[in-house]
Amino acid sequence: MDDKHCGGKSSGDVLEMTAACCFSCQSVFSVNLCSTAFAELVKNITRAKSFRSRSSLRKPAIMVDYEKQFMLYLIDEKCYDKYFVEFDFLDGACFRALISKGLGLGIIAGSVLVKVPQITKILASKSARGISLFSVCLDLFAITIHMAYSFVNGFPFSAWGDTSFLALQTAIIAMLVLYYGGSSARSVVFGVCYSALVYVLMGGLTPLNYLLIAQGFNVPILLIGKLSQAFANYRNGSTGQLSAVTCFMLLAGSLARIFTSIQETGDQMMIITYGSSSFANLVIALQVLYYWNSDKQKKSSSKEAVKKPKAKSKKTD
Question: Superkingdom of this entry's organism (predicted)?
């Protein structure tokens, strides 16, 4: 076999062909050429194997990165190492942080629908009887100030995110109270003015010092708003169109927020605010239980009063 043929064989991509060529080569030049080609081929095969091994590990590595990013949203780097590097699942501080984050996210998920029963109850009855507009507006103001204060301070969304949904739903309730009170124009004006207020407070136009002062007034405003609703319930001897589901969900959320505020922010003003809110929500929840039977009796008596005129009309006919 000539050198050209040997050189052609040695430049192939198949290992067996290269080996056969090297054995058949006669000259020193051909042997050197075949040896060089063989070494180059072995190097290429090694590279291909390493590339396949890296590509096979790429997907699991990406998945691990995504899992780590998700867990770092729930816990910090130190707790991540405790759980997934040292496998220390009994660390108390990390466990409290994880519970707090889970509670915060659960409260946010629940807040999406917390006042929807109240809204649907007003829409179904086409009446806002028993709902104090003064109480709703004060409650909305307190929620909005708290939301703006937390947002501007840069607190984690899990520590205050529920207030954004509560503010939206409370604003809708206020607009419905105005609408069914016979003033649709005021309802629209209220919505526009409230949107402008939110922009001013959260759009960087209000200094943090002013928000801190407003947050200080939040506790008495919140108590006055909630307790004025409680006084209206007492005066009417009924909770009217108040939704029991909404009242109990607000109570549970405010109680849980005391723990999450201690754990995630440590802000004394937020802790006091949620403590006061829990007290006021507890008063209204107890009123819902106390007036439960009286509301049912009033509904049944009103139905009977509607039926009696019909019975009289039949007799006259």
Answer: Eukaryota
